[in-house]
Structures are given as C-alpha cells and as structure tokens.
Amino acid sequence: MKLFAENQGFNNLGLPQQAQKKQAQQILILSDTPDVIEEVSAYLSINNINDHRVCEDNFFSLKDNAVIGSARSVIIDIADETDLEVIAKRATLLIPNIVRVIFLGNVDSISFSQSMKRAGFHYLHRKYELQNIAALLTMSDSSNTAANLMKISVLGCKGGIGTTTVSYNLFKSLTHLSTIPTLLVQGNSGSSDLDLIMEQVIPRDGSISYVANHAAVRLETAENSWSFNDAMFNRFNLIIFEHSMVGSINDKLESIFANSQTIILVLNRNLTCLRVAKRLIEEQKRNFISRPVVGQKIIICLNENTPNKIDDMKNEDIEEYLQCRVSLILPYTNKKHKQLEESPVYGFARHHILGLGDEAEVKSKRFYFGKILGK
What we know:
Shape: elongated
Largest sheet: 10 strands, mixed
Strand order of the largest sheet: 8-9-7-10-6-11-12-13-14-15
Number of helices: 13
Number of strands: 15
Order of helices and strands: HEHEHEHEHEHEHEHEEEHEHEHEHHEE
Helix content: 25-40%
Structural class: alpha/beta
C-alpha cells in the first residue's frame, strides 16, 4: 500500500487551495492505545465537543494520510517519543498545514515541551495537561503555527543542464505520491521557462497558481526574488525552490543554506559545472558549522543532458573530486515523454524525500536508469 493517496493528475490553474478544508468538519483522535482514546474522548465530551472520531493507529507507522487530511483538527498520541526530528518529519509528510495538530505524550520534560513549542507544535503531557485540550481546539486559526514545512532547494550548477526539468519532475513525483500541499517556486535567477516544460500558461506577476487541489507553482519576479519566507508559503508543507547558481550569487548562499532542509545540486560531467558544485559543498560545510540546520543534507544529482563522450569524467572520479556521493543519476535519453513512475526522480522522491521503505535500505541506495542500485 502506498503511504499517500495518489493524485489523479494536474488540472486547470486557479483551484482554491482551501477546497479540502471545507470538507474537514471533525476532530480526529489518533492513537493505538485504548486508554488514551478513552481519556481524550471523555475530556472532549465534558467540554461539549462531540464532532470527533477515532483512528486506532500509530502515528509513526500510519500508512495513509487521507484520514488526517480530512480532519479539521487532530490529536496525536506520540507516547514516549522524544526525537523532535522524527516527529517533525512525520508531521510534514502526513499533516496539511491547514489541519490543527495537538501532540499528546508521556514525556514529562520542560525542555522537551519547550523544544516542541519552539518548533511550532502544541504539546500536552497526557497525565498533567489533558485538561487544556479543549482550549487549544477552540483557539482561533491565527494561533495555529505552520510548523510542518520542508524546504528543498534545487540548485543548477550550470545553465542549460536541465535544472528546471529536474525540479519539475521532482514536484510531479511528490504530488503524485502525496496529497500534502506542495509548491514549486522557479527562481528569477534562471531561465523562467517552467511554463514551456509544463506546456501551460503561468502568471508572471509572482502569484501562486494551483495546478491541483494540493499542488501549486510560482514564478518569481525581480521584486520577490530569493524569498524563502513569504507568508503565503505557510499554506504548504513541501516547497521546492529552483535557482541557477551561475553568476555572482555569493551573497545569496547564506540565505539558501539557512532556509533549506535539503539541497539538491544539479550538475553534469563538465568540469566548470563540477567546480561550482565543489564550491557550494565547501560553503555549505562552512556555513553549517556556524549556523547548523537540523537534518540538512546535500544531494548530488548528475543529469546527463547530452550523450556521453569518451573523455567524460567517470562517476567515481566525480565523487572523489567532490568528496561527496552521487545519489541521483539521470541518464541521457532522446525520449521526450516517459511514464512518471519510470523516472529515477520518482524513486528518489519516494525513498529519499518521503522516506518510504526501510530506513537502512533507503540510505544505502542510489538511483539510476529508474532502478535502485546499491553502491
């Protein structure tokens, strides 16, 4: 079974992003512990909150996000879990930002509670704070923090090597695998040809255009270029930023590194391109020492946009030069239209971004010719 319900394909622009919120009329209790379900249900009933239902499942092993996405608010039992990174990632991949979430656990720790609050989450201790659950559920929407947000920067190390195609295929893959609200932002630093690849009109005024109920695109303008924290972004859980790193962009690197959980460097076998990639990797390492981003990782994507030549650098030579593993290899092809599921990007999105599958297995794989190969 897929973790996420499949999207039925992109449709016309301008779909209201809040469409699914109109259907959300209930409060969901998510727990696989009968005592927790009984206690929470009792508190809700005492406070005349009767429009609730129960899902007897474990948050960390839940296989489908449809049950959460159809709720207005969700109360999630995390039991004894204390790993904030694990909690945050599951929240990003399962809970749309328009859904209010309250985590309920057994961890009686001020530092843990404060860490959850800094991360933008509501956390209640099951034994001592359950009585506060009604107040949290009746807070205004403006009090709800958009904490479930993952930002991915796709950075082209040379012009004309297919960075837009890579970012768009990643966007399509994620929105096909997941119903989580996802946005693709094409930066003003590049060619701004996303409309040609999508084969449809995209407004060039910096507005956000919906291509499905949970998927949208935006073309940056000069006025809003290199913006990572626009208030409109809080509607989404996953945001892909595409930028060209050609030219003088040194003053932008700090902002990129500070606002990206995942950085995908798109390159080919050209030495000039590899030099740009090496510089970015070194700058990221230096920046991470002084301003670490929790869980931040760099992904090397080798996009073979032209037929291979005899004197091209080999994969192992590229890895040695960059001192970094190549995780995604997109071979040259003259096929213009392929099944999405056949693309290496699709497998990469499924395993490396959404984390579907055994964790140890996912970490050991790289993607090539649409297959997963161990190194």
